[in-house]
Design brief:
The chain is mainly beta and 92 residues long. The protein has two helices and six strands; from the N terminus they run βββαβββα. The structure holds zinc ion (ZN). The site of zinc ion (ZN) has 7 residues, from loops.
Length: 92
């Protein structure tokens, strides 16, 4: 798999690190609710199909990228710099 970094151009997947879904989860309000904190820290969705993801170009320019990828085919539909897309509460 190759990823076309907006700053560096097309690079091998090995230069990138998957950081998870770009959809931000709300931090539990009750800090003593261990079940809610467990889910907040460890439970992630694993959708089949289109997924908005956060990646970093860890061994390149170190930019954070928003990638829309089909998890069935690994086809990348869009790549944007996270700094250009960030909105309050969500990076989608
Ligand atoms: Zn880059």
């Amino acid at each position: 798999m190759r990823i076309n970094c907006p700053l560096c151009g097309e690079r091998d997947l090995a230069e990138f690190h998957y950081e998870g879904s770009s959809k931000l989860m709300a931090r539990p309000k009750d800090e003593n609710d261990t079940d809610a904190f467990h889910d907040y820290l460890h439970i992630r969705s694993n959708p089949a199909g289109l997924n908005n993801e956060l990646w970093s170009h860890e061994y390149g320019c170190r930019a954070w990228l928003l990638i829309c990828r089909d998890t069935n085919t690994h086809e990348i539909l869009s790549i944007d710099l996270a700094r250009d897309k960030k909105t309050k509460g969500s990076l989608d």
